[in-house]
Amino acid sequence: MTDADNHPDSGNRPDTDRTETGDRPGAALLDVRDLNVVYRGSGWRRPSFHALHDVSIRIGAGETVGLVGESGSGKTTLGRALLGLAPVSSGSVTFDGTDITRAGRRARRALSRDIQVVFQDPYSSLNPAMSVESILAEPLRAQGTSRAEASVRIGELLRQIGLTADAGRRYPREFSGGQRQRIAIARALALEPRLIVCDEPVSALDLSTQARILDLLIDIQQQTGVAYLFISHDLSVVRYICHRVAVMFKGRIVETGDGAAVTSDPHHPYTRRLLMASPLPDPVRQAERRRRYAALA
Ligand SMILES: Nc1ncnc2c1ncn2[C@@H]1O[C@H](COP(=O)(O)OP(=O)(O)OP(=O)(O)O)[C@@H](O)[C@H]1O
Fold it and tell me: Which of 1, 8, 111, 144 shows the smallest number of beta carbons within 10 Å?
């Protein structure tokens, strides 16, 4: 995408039909219901912490749902719960009909193909001692893909993220931050997941690189139909990429709805405060980002 009008600040992410509640009609790919997560403490020095309170959220196939909220509100904890990595005390996380919180080992193994994650920091999320080829081969080999098939798939993945085939022989240190994040995205895509938890995937990148990575994620979604849970602090980014947005405050979801509506006409007082702290649109920032983006196009 090279049109400056399709810039992250413009909030014109193509939308699809919505129901009145903002949910897509039909069965959800992911259905989180009344989820509670409690981190157990150890004595009075480290008391237990109730991180998520009765959280419910749905994500449809091919949909991007944004999760915004201040630091410590529980966004990453929810992302971890989808990966089966949070101490769930009650509630359910149903992915395509299987409750992740109660799944046995075999079901979990199958789910680990379907749900992948991309982290904020591409510098620390890639093993510096491994070539890109080995990084991308790892999830494929772990699922029993043959060497020959893995090699073909790695070629496809590099093309998909816009890197040349020789990138496979190089190491993470030889790439820029944006290129490393592309490699992290390719690793997440290797097993053709149906949902990717994107935990602040562009916050460590400069503005023009952010725009390119967001466009890559949108292109990939259009090609593959993957769904995203997109965790971010940046409302302009969320407005650009997300179909729907959920706002978290102190471990609770306080508002959900259409991405453009929530970010321009918030109902909950906390969302209004969030918007005031990061005004949208900011004409100066918008013009600056458009200029940089156009120069790169
Ligand atoms: N392993 C843990 N043990 C105890 N408490 C934890 C643990 N992990 C997170 N927490 C607490 O749970 C709360 C939610 O943390 P979480 O990382 O989910 O927030 P967040 O919204 O993702 O924050 P940020 O935007 O800063 O990443 C915080 O108060 C945090 O201190």
Answer: 144
> Are 181 and 214 contacting, i.e. CB atoms less than 8 angstroms apart?
no
Ligand 1: lining residues by beta carbon, under 6 Å: 39, 49, 51, 69, 71-77
Are 117 and 175 in contact by the 8 Å Cβ rule? The answer is no
Distance 72 CA to ligand 1 centre (A): 5
- Whether the ipTM is more than 0.95: the answer is yes
pLDDT at 187 over 80: yes
Class (C level, CATH) for 27-122+197-296: alpha beta
* End-to-end Cα distance, the chain: 8
Q: Rounded CA gap, 92 and 78, in Å?
A: 12
How far apart are the C-alpha atoms of 215 and 289, rounded to whole Å?
A: 14
CB 240 within 8 A of CB 206: no
The H-or-E segment that residue 38 falls in is strand 30-39
Which band of pLDDT confidence, cut at 50, 70 and 90, is reported for residue 286? Answer: low
- For residue 268, what pLDDT band results from cuts at 50, 70 and 90? confident
Contact (CB, 8 A) for 148 and 140 = no
Preceding amide of 281 cis, omega within 30:
yes
Q: Which residue from 38, 42, 48, 75 has its CB within 8 A of the most atoms of ligand 1, so it is best to mutate?
A: 75
Domain spans in the chain, listed from the N-terminal domain onward: 27-122+197-296
- Both tokens of 65, joined, read 């749902």
Does the pLDDT value for residue 292 go beyond 60?
Answer: no
The span from the CA of 182 to the CA of 191, in Å, is: 15
